[in-house]
C-alpha cells in the first residue's frame, strides 16, 4: 500500500541552514534533474529580506507559517512588497526578478520543475 507523505511547520526536517538564519529542505523529488518536479520548504526568520534574484523555473508557493512579503524588480522596496499571509498561494514565474522577506518567522512550501537555480541581480 502506498502511504501519503505530509509535512507541517513542526515536522519539516531542515537539510540546510545558512548564516543569515534561513533554512531549506527538499521535501520530495530532486531539484537538479531536468524535467523532474520537486517540493521544497524555505524558512525565513523575522527581519530577513532576500535581495533581488530570479529562479530558472516557475515556483508555486503556499505560505504555511507567518507572512511572506514579495515584490518584483531589481531594487528591494519593502513598502511596495505584497504580503501573503498563512494560506496565501502564489506563482513566481521563471526568470522574474523579485525580492522577498518576512517580518515574522515564516515558512513557505513550494513546487517547481528542475533544474533549479537562483541567480542574484549582479551575479554573472
Would you write up a description of this structure?
With 124 residues, the chain is mainly beta. It has no helices and 11 strands. A 6-stranded antiparallel beta sheet has the order 1-2-3-10-5-8, with no helix packed on it. A hairpin with a 5-residue loop joins strand 1 and strand 2.
Summarize the model shown.
By secondary structure, the chain is an all-beta fold.
Per DSSP, the total helix count is 0
Helix/strand-derived category reads: mainly beta
Low-confidence stretches: none
Mean pLDDT: 95
Classify the helix fraction into a percent range.
Answer: under 10%
Characterize the overall form. Answer: globular
Strand content: over 45%
Cα Rg = 14 Å
Tell me about the largest β-sheet: 6 strands, antiparallel
Spatial separation of the terminal alpha carbons: 48 Å
Total strands: the figure is 11
Largest sheet strand order = 1-2-3-10-5-8
H and E string: EEEEEEEEEEE
Which helices and strands, and how do they pair?
Elements: E1 16-17, E2 23-29, E3 37-44, E4 49-55, E5 59-65, E6 67-72, E7 82-85, E8 89-92, E9 98-101, E10 106-113, E11 118-120
Antiparallel strand pairs: 1-2, 2-3, 3-10, 4-9, 4-11, 5-8, 5-10, 6-7, 6-9
Summarize this structure as a short list of keywords or feature phrases:
globular, 5-stranded antiparallel beta sheet, mainly beta, 124 residues, 6-stranded antiparallel beta sheet
Amino acid at each position: 500500500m502506498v502511504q501519503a507523505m505530509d509535512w507541517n511547520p513542526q515536522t519539516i526536517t531542515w537539510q540546510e541552514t545558512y548564516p543569515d538564519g534561513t533554512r531549506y529542505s527538499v521535501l520530495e523529488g530532486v531539484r537538479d534533474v531536468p524535467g523532474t518536479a520537486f517540493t521544497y520548504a524555505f524558512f525565513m526568520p523575522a527581519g530577513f529580506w532576500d535581495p533581488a534574484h530570479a529562479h530558472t523555473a516557475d515556483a508555486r508557493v503556499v505560505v504555511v507559517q507567518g507572512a511572506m512579503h514579495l515584490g518584483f524588480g531589481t531594487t528591494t522596496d519593502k513598502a511596495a512588497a505584497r504580503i501573503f499571509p498563512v494560506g496565501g498561494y502564489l506563482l513566481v514565474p521563471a526568470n522574474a526578478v523579485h525580492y522577498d522577506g518576512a517580518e515574522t518567522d515564516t515558512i513557505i512550501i513550494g513546487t517547481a520543475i528542475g533544474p533549479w537555480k537562483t541567480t542574484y541581480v549582479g551575479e554573472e
